[in-house]
Specification:
Blueprint lengths: L2 H15 L49 E5 L5 E5 L1 H7 L6 H9 L3 E6 L9 E22 L4 E22 L4 E8 L6 E10 L4 E8 L4 E10 L5 E10 L4 E10 L5 E10 L5 E10 L7 E10 L5 E10 L6 E10 L2 H8 L5 H17 L5 H20 L4
Helix pairs in contact: 4-5, 5-6
C-alpha cells in the first residue's frame, strides 16, 4: 500500500468514526435508493426548477456521449477505464445526478498527470453536445501525482441533457489549477459535480464559469487527505433572461491546518434571469488550526432578475485560525455611474466599465491568458446583448 493510499484510508477511517452529516450535503452513496427523485421540497433542491430538467433525473439509460477534442502536453495520459476501476478511484456521489452518472455511464475517462511533472502548457478537454435530445451520463477522473504542477481546462459547448461526476485527486505537495467552463447553447441542461481531494501540503485552485445553458446546476466539493492542504474555489457566472444558473460549494475541513477560500461573482440581466449560490463550510472537531472564508457578490443589471445567495458555516471546534463569510446583491453603483457620466463617458460605456471592473480581478486569477481574454470578451458580449435589447 502506498503512502497516499494509507493517508486516504486514515482519513476515511476518521470520518467513519466521527461522521458529521452536513444538512446541505447528504452522505455519499452509490445506491440510487439513497438518492430518491426530488420533489422540490428538499432543502438541497428547493431552488432548482425541476420541471425544466427534461427528465434528467428519471434514471433513463443512454448510450449518447459528447464529442471530445483534447490538447495533452507531453507525458499526460488520457484513457478510458471501466466503471469498476472508476469506483476504486473516484469520490463517491452524494446527490442523485452524480449517482446516476456513476450508475449509467459506460466507464469513465481518466486523465493522469505523473508525479513530479511540471506541465508547460494547460491540458484542454473540449466537450461538445450535438442536441438537447441527447441524454448523456459521464464520469471523469483527474489524477495528479505527488509534487506535480498542472493546469486543466474542461469546457462544455453545444447542447445536451448532461449528468456528470468529476473527481479531482491531487497528490501530496502538488499544485493544480482546474477550470470548468459551461458555455452551452440556450437549451442545454447540465447537472455537474466536481469533487476534489486535496493531498497533504497540496494547493488546488478550482474555477467554475457558467454563461450558457437553460439550466446549469454545478457542485464544487472539497475534502482533504492530510494536513496542510489549501483550496481556492473561484466562480464567475452571467445569467440572461430565463436562465437558471446554480452553484453549490462545500468545503469539508476534515484535517487540521487546512485552508479554503471561496470567491464567486455573478451578474444578471433580463426578465426571469435567476442565479443561486449556496456556500457551505464544515469544520470538524479534528480540523484544528484551519482557515476558511467564503464570499459571493451579485450585480443585478435590470429589473425582473432574482439572485439567491446563502453562505453557511458549520463549526465543530473553536480551535481555528479564522472562519467567515460575506454575501451581497446590488444594482449598479449609482455614484460610480454618475462619476463616469460627469466626465463625458456615455451611459453604455459607463455600464461596461463598471461591469468590467466587477469581474476583472476574478478573471485575472484564472491563470490561462487565452481563456482570460475569452472570458473578458464573453462578459462584454453579454452586456452588449442587454444594451442592444434596450433593457434598463
Amino acid at each position: 500500500m502506498t503512502v497516499t493510499e494509507t493517508a486516504r484510508d486514515s482519513v476515511a477511517s476518521a470520518l467513519e468514526q466521527e461522521r458529521v452529516v452536513s444538512h446541505l450535503n447528504p452522505p455519499p452513496s452509490y445506491d440510487l435508493a439513497d438518492h430518491p427523485v426530488p420533489t422540490g421540497r428538499e432543502e438541497v433542491w428547493r431552488f432548482t426548477p425541476l420541471k425544466r430538467l427534461r427528465g434528467l433525473l428519471d434514471g433513463e439509460p443512454s448510450e449518447a456521449s459528447l464529442a471530445l477534442e483534447q490538447e495533452l502536453p507531453a507525458g499526460v495520459e488520457l484513457r478510458t477505464i471501466s466503471a469498476a476501476e472508476a469506483r476504486e478511484l473516484e469520490l463517491p456521489p452524494n446527490e442523485r445526478p452524480a449517482a446516476l452518472a456513476a450508475e449509467l455511464a459506460d466507464g469513465a475517462l481518466l486523465l493522469d498527470v505523473p508525479a513530479e511533472a511540471e506541465l508547460d502548457a494547460p491540458v484542454v478537454l473540449r466537450f461538445r453536445g450535438g442536441s438537447v435530445d441527447d441524454l448523456v451520463h459521464a464520469r471523469l477522473v483527474l489524477r495528479f501525482g505527488a509534487h506535480s504542477r498542472a493546469t486543466v481546462v474542461v469546457s462544455h459547448t453545444g447542447s445536451a441533457r448532461y449528468n456528470a461526476i468529476t473527481s479531482v485527486l491531487v497528490g501530496d505537495g502538488a499544485e493544480v489549477d482546474v477550470v470548468s467552463l459551461q458555455d452551452w447553447d440556450d437549451d442545454a441542461v447540465h447537472l455537474g459535480r466536481d469533487a476534489v481531494r486535496v493531498g497533504r501540503d497540496a494547493k488546488v485552485k478550482h474555477t467554475s464559469v457558467s454563461f450558457g445553458g437553460d439550466v446549469v446546476r454545478m457542485h464544487a466539493n472539497v475534502e482533504y487527505a492530510g494536513p496542510g492542504g489549501e483550496a481556492e474555489l473561484l466562480g464567475l457566472y452571467f445569467a440572461d433572461a430565463g436562465q437558471h444558473l446554480e452553484h453549490r460549494l462545500f468545503a469539508d475541513h476534515n484535517a487540521p491546518r487546512t485552508k479554503s477560500n471561496v470567491v464567486y461573482k455573478g451578474a444578471l440581466q433580463g426578465e426571469g434571469a435567476r442565479t443561486v449560490w449556496i456556500g457551505n463550510v464544515l469544520i470538524r472537531k479534528v480540523a484544528e488550526g484551519i482557515e476558511t472564508y467564503e464570499e459571493n457578490r451579485n450585480l443585478v443589471l435590470t429589473d425582473g432578475c432574482q439572485a439567491d445567495s446563502v453562505p453557511n458555516l458549520e463549526i465543530e471546534t473553536g480551535e481555528i485560525e479564522g472562519a467567515g463569510h460575506a454575501s451581497a446583491t446590488a444594482r449598479f453603483d449609482d455614484e460610480q455611474l454618475f462619476y463616469l457620466r460627469s466626465r463625458g463617458v456615455s451611459d453604455e460605456e459607463a455600464r461596461r466599465l463598471v461591469l468590467h471592473g466587477f469581474f476583472q480581478d476574478l478573471i485575472r486569477k484564472v491563470g490561462v491568458p487565452t481563456l482570460e481574454e475569452q472570458l473578458t470578451a464573453t462578459v462584454e458580449a453579454e452586456l452588449a446583448r442587454n444594451v442592444s435589447g434596450g433593457v434598463r
